[in-house]
Amino acid sequence: MNNELPNVQIYSIGPDEVNYAAALLTGEAIDYIKNGEALGMALVEEDEIRAAVCARLSPDNEMILELISLYVAPAYRRRGLGGTLLMELLDEMMAVTDGSLLGVIANFMPDMEGLEAFFSKDGFRLEQDEQVLSWKFTVADLSDSILLKQRVPVPKDYSIRSLKKLSDYEVHQLVNVLRQNWVDDRTEKEMRLALQSDSYVLLDEREGPRACVVLEKQEEKHIYLSQFFVDKGNTVAGMLVLQEAAKSVREHFSEDTVLEIPTLAASSAGLVKKILPMGQPTKLIRAVLELTD
Known about the structure:
The chain is α+β, with helices and mostly antiparallel strands. 29% of the residues lie in helices and 34% in strands. The protein has helices at residues 27-34, 81-96, 115-121, 139-143, 146-149, 168-180, 188-191, 235-252, 266-275; strands at residues 9-13, 39-45, 48-58, 61-72, 103-108, 125-138, 159-162, 200-203, 209-219, 222-230, 258-262, 280-290. A twelve-stranded mixed sheet has the order 1-2-3-4-5-12-6-11-10-9-8-7, sandwiched between helices.
């Protein structure tokens, strides 16, 4: 690591201070720090927080330090601030553990700007994790997919509607159902910021949501499936909303637009691979730093 430290101050971040550095921490890191489950540190230069880190001792092995979040504000990168903060963190954790740390691990997405170069420069070994986080397809891929070739009838007395055509009350009901089923939370306001015409909900005879696909625009040619819910594992319901969303996306977006579908669960990964086999998997990169001689 670079031993020439910039003229900065580094402070510990506890539950009472975490909000000051929240802009440079992930939501997961904020929760860990607030719950006292992880150590946070902030790097301050000219009275401004310019980098923040969060780490904890691994639940599987308390001799391994697990980096939860490490972020340097874009305007201040390539100046050694991240390395400085990381060295301070390691010194602190070595003191806490009486020098018993054996290593450091960090998992990150391959497209996170600058992280591969940062970890490689500071002596980490990079490995590809086996877990598939998401599958990416182009809109052109959808035309030849099994998803659009299969005919899936809508159950009697059910209906499929776009998010755009749902009333505010129906969106409220959808949000409640998603929360009850531990699907990533979105407020009604956030739902209205999604791709309204390309997101679909399957409603039963009582107008209750039984399945949904909510799409959001990440970049000009990158769409992300942010919410996917199927009541009681109903594969038919899932296929119905996915079909409608795929048809709409194919109509509204260019063929080179990328659609990304997260597949954290093995069951959802299997379904996506079956109906859209031409997709490209996105896997985590694991950075490993061994501290033993």
